[in-house]
Amino acid sequence: MRSLKHSQTQSIAQPPCCFSIAKMLVLVFLIAIAGISFQSVPSFNHRPNFFIRRFNFPGIRAQQSEAKPPKRGEEADALKLKEWVIGMLQNEVAASQGIRIRRRQPTGPPSHYVGPFEIGLENEDKTPRNTLEEIIWQKDVEVSQMKEKKPLASLEKFIENAAPTRDFVGALKAAHSRTGLPGLIAEVKKASPTRGILREDFDPVEIARAYQKGGAACLSVLTDEKFFKGSFENLEAIRSAGVKCPLLCKEFVIDAWQIYYARIKGADAILLIAAVLPDHEIRYMVEICKMLGLAALVEVHDEREMDRVLGIEGIELIGINNRNLKTFELDISNTKKLLEGERGEMVRQKDIIVVGESGLFTPDHVAYVQEAGVKAVLVGESIVTQRDLGKGITRLFGKDISL
Ligand SMILES: O=C(O)c1ccccc1NCC(=O)[C@H](O)[C@H](O)COP(=O)(O)O
């Protein structure tokens, strides 16, 4: 019995063209027997090993099956198989773009009977590699539950009646011209996985009002509950309270459904993370944002993500995150590094607004990222932890920006 050892690390580094011939042949075989219909299967991203019993294929674990193929649940089995094949293809595409975050936690080994063959999936690496991957796996579970409760079709009537969105990019540009400083996106952030609770007396509406009064151009509202203690209720409450600043829904988007939901809950902009989403999904989601009147803040962490995003048409806002996704260390020189040379030139040519994100605590930090080329900053911890939020903003910029 031989098993196909499919190392995550190796395959992540390989482009799709490096699929071994054996794997490709098996994939073609599986696609044929599963009768793939790409449109009918939801997005699914995991990278299991696989085995086929009663089928001797080089590099694949093969075994004579004693049991008779069950008749019950064949459709469900076929669907799982289709999902897996699609997930594998999606992973290959994502891996070819350097994306290491797997979209979904690998699950148990479903088996599938096709005629005399028993085909099973076998997963090895079920532990998240880092906090972002853990967040994404959790999000995958949450989103599928929410989609079941509120299918996309049921959101459409709310979208038709939703109030118009406010101009997020325009507000940042206006603040920049008014103050000569980067426009502030102030984050309504109760907690984070790295720092725990940041503010005990957390009243999202009061915080939002204080930020607006203190001169924030826009607000960022964390909606993730498990890791950031945020919520869509916070977003909705801030919007309903008459706060004028345009609102960024700070979510971990893995499914277009979340964009529709954010729009209904009062968002004017939404975050798309390039470390999670391959190019085609960013393109698709940016189009959906445009259709819904939302701005898309596309976040990058390194040169590769920056190059990918600069290659996508129609992007108006790029966020450079100074937080290392693996170590969570903050290094504001990341913003400078990603805006040097040709990249900075492209940003200027395309008239993209760059937002410096994370780890900004002092006027020197703000001046440093402004010098690097940002026209906006996204700040959470350094202001949300201050007792007087307005003074916190003044301290961050070294002057009162509300005037
Ligand atoms: O804030 C975190 O610890 C964090 C951990 C894992 C993924 C994302 C995380 N933060 C999201 C953000 O982008 C920040 O909340 C935002 O940039 C503000 O950062 P800061 O000013 O450092 O609070």
Automatic annotation (TrEMBL):
<dbReference type="GO" id="GO:0004425">
    <property type="term" value="F:indole-3-glycerol-phosphate synthase activity"/>
</dbReference>
<keyword id="KW-1133">Transmembrane helix</keyword>
<keyword id="KW-0028">Amino-acid biosynthesis</keyword>
<dbReference type="GO" id="GO:0000162">
    <property type="term" value="P:L-tryptophan biosynthetic process"/>
</dbReference>
<dbReference type="InterPro" id="IPR001468">
    <property type="entry name" value="Indole-3-GlycerolPSynthase_CS"/>
</dbReference>
<dbReference type="InterPro" id="IPR013798">
    <property type="entry name" value="Indole-3-glycerol_P_synth_dom"/>
</dbReference>
<dbReference type="Pfam" id="PF00218">
    <property type="entry name" value="IGPS"/>
</dbReference>
<feature type="domain" description="Indole-3-glycerol phosphate synthase">
    <location>
        <begin position="132"/>
        <end position="396"/>
    </location>
</feature>
<dbReference type="InterPro" id="IPR011060">
    <property type="entry name" value="RibuloseP-bd_barrel"/>
</dbReference>
<protein>
    <recommendedName>
        <fullName>indole-3-glycerol-phosphate synthase</fullName>
        <ecNumber>4.1.1.48</ecNumber>
    </recommendedName>
</protein>
<feature type="transmembrane region" description="Helical">
    <location>
        <begin position="21"/>
        <end position="41"/>
    </location>
</feature>
<dbReference type="InterPro" id="IPR045186">
    <property type="entry name" value="Indole-3-glycerol_P_synth"/>
</dbReference>
<keyword id="KW-0456">Lyase</keyword>
<keyword id="KW-0812">Transmembrane</keyword>
<keyword id="KW-0822">Tryptophan biosynthesis</keyword>
<keyword id="KW-0210">Decarboxylase</keyword>
<dbReference type="InterPro" id="IPR013785">
    <property type="entry name" value="Aldolase_TIM"/>
</dbReference>
<keyword id="KW-0057">Aromatic amino acid biosynthesis</keyword>
<keyword id="KW-0472">Membrane</keyword>
<comment type="pathway">
    <text>Amino-acid biosynthesis; L-tryptophan biosynthesis; L-tryptophan from chorismate: step 4/5.</text>
</comment>
